[in-house]
Amino acid sequence: MTVIEQRGAYRPTPPPAWQPRTDPAPLLPDPEPYRVLGTEAAAKTDPELLRTLYAQLVRGRRYNAQATALTKQGRLAVYPSSTGQEACEVAAALVLKEQDWLFPSYRDTLAVVARGVDPVEALTLLRGDWHTGYDPYEHRVAPLCTPLATQLPHAVGLAHAARLKGDDVVALAMVGDGGSSEGDFHEALNFAAVWQAPVVFLVQNNGFAISVPLAKQTAAPSLAHKAVGYGMPGRLVDGNDAAAVHEVLSDAVRHARAGGGPTLVEAITYRVDAHTNADDATRYRGDAEVETWRQHDPIQLLEHELTERGWLDEAGIEAARQDAETMAAALRERMNQDPALDPMDLFAHVYAEPTSQLREQRDQLRAELEAEAESEGAHR
């Protein structure tokens, strides 16, 4: 006999005692992306903070341009540019304290550099020279993550462990709109909300998952609305408004640090450049669309606000540009130097305790290299 066949066991509606676990109203994002620049709220922002954001945006734009040029010169294997998304990148790095952790995706090189990682070391993975290129513990920056969204559960695990230990640590995990369609995205948000882990999820919605537009990925009103289903607040922000992104992320980080649990922030932005140097973006979007977004450029928006309020003059603008050029020149010079690479480094920093298979592979490669060296020596 099934449950439905049992007399009196089937109820067409839930019992009266049923009620939602969480009131959904406070979790819902604003109907429109939150903005600061061009609004009355801009007058209340710290001018020094805005000038710092501006200098970092200019520096980041130049970094993107220089790294893209390096791919054309064969000095980088690939570079996923974040041109147009600099406001999200810079704000994500600046809202964190020294002890906090940043979990970037492969497009978030600029955030990694803004966090303090050496510009050349941040590109080492994309050059193919090292597993990561930098020490994650030095700046509390996880490795650049190429698989989509796999860094999100790691961020939750670290944040949850920190809370259990009583450490004052918040993790900020960055992901693209394409990553929100991955299973790891669901698992991370679900665990984070259940555990009330001190983690902030920043989704940079740049319109496309390579060539797939957002409308073909989800029918949700916004990606921020997905937060409600997990029981955490969702925030929607203009991702090209550096002041707004910084404010929203700061609020989310403070909320997490105070024990309030996770927040999902969706930043509406746009990838001006192609997906990578190997992508032909003209096959799936038109020039008119790109030009429309160029009119909403994060650097221009912030520069206009600063100059209109008298908080930035021509000398300040030129100083920011010169600093960016100095950085680009140093990056160019260092990247044009051929690094001294040791093939045996392939086996370093893979496991804390190397596995038997890894040791076998290491010994095999060492034997092959020694045999090759002996062969070359015999022919001299």
Automatic annotation (TrEMBL):
This is Pyruvate dehydrogenase (Acetyl-transferring) E1 component subunit alpha. Keywords: Oxidoreductase, Pyruvate, Thiamine pyrophosphate. The gene is pdhA. Residues 359-369 have a biased composition (Basic and acidic residues). InterPro entries: Alpha-ketoacid_DH_E1_comp, DH_E1, PdhA/BkdA, THDP-binding. The keyword Oxidoreductase applies. It comes from Streptomyces bullii. Residues 1-31, 357-380 are annotated as: Disordered. Residues 370-380 have a biased composition (Acidic residues). Its cofactor is thiamine diphosphate. Residues 64-329 form the Dehydrogenase E1 component domain. Signal peptide: none annotated.
